[in-house]
Amino acid sequence: MAVTGDETDEETELAPSHMAAATGDMPTYQIRAPTTALPQGVVMAASPGSLHSPQQLAEEATRKRELRLMKNREAAKECRRRKKEYVKCLESRVAVLEVQNKKLIEELETLKDICSPKTD
DNA sequence: CGTTTAGTGCGTCAACTGCA
DNA sequence: TGCAGTTGACGCACTAAACG
């Protein structure tokens, strides 16, 4: 059951991430911050052309891996933060819609009372 | 008390997407 | 097509509440 992006199309206006987030008035799950700011302590690589020995290659591979892990660590934190925010938005929207729904039901009952023929 | 259980956060991997 | 970013899934550690 591969993980493909066929989530269901039932009125998704808050699409998690890359699913062509639809127009809603809520912030989509994915809000891109101007990234690129590397966490402290990250040193850019030596110019690739200067590597020769297996030792150096191994060190470079290790360094690349650590850099990737560090970046992904930060990305995961940010992703979770956005997800929490997204869930909060959904919850508050639910609250609003519940109130709205309640009002509509009340209105409907009122109208029913007005319109129904009186049976003495 | 010590043990168990449920909830939460984190780091990592892997799959996926969009862009140059 | 390769690369970087995003995110679901997994396992681990930690904490608070419940229980005997």
Automatic annotation (TrEMBL):
It holds the Pfam family bZIP_1. This is BZIP domain-containing protein. InterPro entries: bZIP, bZIP_sf, Leuzip_CREB. Residues 87-114 form a coiled coil. GO terms for molecular function: DNA-binding transcription factor activity, RNA polymerase II-specific; RNA polymerase II cis-regulatory region sequence-specific DNA binding. One of its GO terms (cellular component) is ATF4-CREB1 transcription factor complex. PROSITE patterns: BZIP, BZIP_BASIC. It is found in: Nucleus. Residues 1-13 have a biased composition (Acidic residues). Residues 1-25 are annotated as: Disordered.
